[in-house]
Amino acid sequence: MRSASKMALLGIAAMYLYIAFNLCNWENRYPIGWDETGYYLYLPATFIYHDISRCNFYPRICSTYGINNNVQWYGLLDEATGCKLDKYHIGTGILEAPFFFLAHCYCIICRTKYPADGYSLPYMVALTFGTIFWVFAGLLILRKFLQKYFPDAAIAIVLLLLAFGTNLFFYTLFDAGMSHPFSFALFCFLLFNTERWYTTARMINVLWIGALLGLIIITRPTNAVVAIIPLCWKYKDNKLSARFAFFKKQLWPILFSMVSFVLLLSIELSYWKYTTGHWVHYAYEGEHFNFSSPHIADGLFSYRKGWFVYTPLALIGVCGLIPLARKYVAMATLIAVYIGINIYIVFSWEQWFYGGSFGCRALIEALAVVAIPLAMLTQWGLDQKKRVLTISMFTVFGFLITLNLFQSYQLRRNVLVWDDNNRAYYWHTFGKLEVTATERELLKNP
Questions:
Q1: Rounded to whole angstroms, how far apart are CA atoms 136 and 143?
Q2: How confident is the model at residue 72 (pLDDT cuts 50, 70, 90)?
Q3: Cα–Cα dist 74/84, whole Å
Q4: Fewest 10 Å CB contacts: which of 106, 236, 259, 386?
Q5: Residue 87 contacts residue 283 (beta carbons within 8 Å)
Q6: Secondary structure (3-state) at 85
Q7: What is the spatial distance between Cα 91 and Cα 228, in angstroms, rounded to a whole number?
Q8: In this structure, are residues 368 and 142 in contact, taking their beta carbons and an 8 Å threshold?
Q9: 3-state secondary structure of 405
Q10: 3-state SS string over 246-314?
Q11: In this predicted model, what pLDDT tens digit does every residue of 278-303 receive, in sequence order?
Q12: Collapsing DSSP states into helix, strand and coil, what is residue 3?
């Protein structure tokens, strides 16, 4: 008999593939633009046009496929070297590479009507299915990690909640190519290898930790804060003496892990050196953090992009830290510290709303960590002897999944807008599939 969590994964895969094949409307919808273009640009520039330094091919591609061509975003000219710098980090492109090569081979070998130019339809289909692959791989490995601590039924529910009840769903299927779904998968792999390393002390796991941290940073540098998880993961009742003894015993594996970390990091550093002449370069010119004045309340609770407003399951997951602390106090403390620091960093960015997005996209990857207290809260609900509590929990979870799916559809129909949502507009359009001109006037920029 199949376990509930395996059935949940099969259901997620089937539903994601069905949506991708049937609802994405490939011929009339181009799935790449804006930030996705910047992440993806490395692949065609390197392997098709051999022009990573100037990207002279890009204006023609933009004209052919109607992609936005904004040099301020993708081609910052470095006056010292004469090269154009792609400000977006390279890690997403690395994870997209296998699917890019599959599409490229298909276009060349099969000699279809689609040109092998890196931007025709097969490449865009491959990009979406590549995103689905990595998210599914992340959920698969997250299941293995959660099995260490939680029963199968609770794990199945959490997997379904992540896949359908959060904005991970939207960014996997309808905004493929953004860095966040890929980062989510990397976080899941990091959790799994961290647990395995502390449990088995195998070198392979600590090597993976180093490589994963390097890839996480060159995918989205602000996610470097997740390094505190493998550094401070619970070990023998979290006694410092035992932890230091473990690190001392693991000195050589840790050093080799640092080598794997540097090797991954050097991919980004080498690109900066080639295009700017400097090993370290701040690519986001004119954009910065404001750590003295973070927008934490706006980032969590505003109707513009509030994390807890558009992904209320995240709030439920954070509340799960309470029952988690009763059983695994060290783990709960570490997760609370990570979430707190991450929220502070994310909402210290001057554009705390992160441009056009569905909810707070910058915290999608953190959902991998939030899954732990969410699983504990779910287990607590399943363990209650009062059936009314269990039924209430399932009712809330079902409503939140329905809400997320419906609001994802609202965004695709431009009922919910990419930015500038506010309280009045949110509630006037709540549950609607059409919006009137009068309701549009409620927006700051109707």
A1: 11
A2: very low
A3: 8
A4: 386
A5: yes
A6: strand
A7: 20
A8: yes
A9: helix
A10: HHHHCHHHHHHHHHHHHHHHHHHHHHHHHHHCCCCCCCCCCCCECCCCCCHHHHHHCCCCCHHHHCHHH
A11: 899 888 877 899 999 999 999 999 99
A12: coil
Q: Tell which residue, 261, 260, 259, 233, has the closest CA to residue 247.
A: 233
Predicted confidence band of residue 242 (pLDDT cuts 50, 70, 90): confident
Over the stretch 149-180, which tens digit does the pLDDT of each residue have? 999 999 999 999 999 999 999 999 988 889 99
In this structure, the dihedral spanned by the alpha carbons of residues 93, 98, 100 and 103, taken in order and rounded to 10 degrees, is -170
Residue 70 zone, left/alpha/beta (φ > 0; ψ -120 to 50; rest): beta
Query: What DSSP character marks residue 41?
Result: T
Phi/psi at 111 (nearest 5 deg)? 50, 55
Q: Cα separations (Å) of 289 from 217, 285, 346, 347, 352?
A: 17, 12, 9, 9, 9
| Residues whose CB falls within 8 Å of the CB of residue 320, separated by 6 or more in sequence, listed in order | 372, 373, 374, 375, 376, 377, 378, 380
pTM for this predicted structure: 0.95
**CA separation (Å) from 119 to 156, 268, 301, 344?**
37, 23, 38, 37
Taking a C-beta distance cutoff of 8 angstroms, is the pair 161, 401 a contact? yes
Residue with the two structure tokens 């309280």:
423
- pLDDT band, very low/low/confident/very high, at 66 (cuts 50, 70, 90): confident
DSSP state at residue 364: T
Interatomic CA distance for residues 390 and 284, integer angstroms: 48
Residue with tokens 């991998």: 368
Q: Which helix (H) or strand (E) holds 40?
A: helix 35-40
Q: Does an H or E element contain 78, and which? A: strand 76-78
Task: State how far the Cα of 126 lies from the Cα of 102, in Å rounded to an integer.
Answer: 8
d(CA 88, CA 86): 6
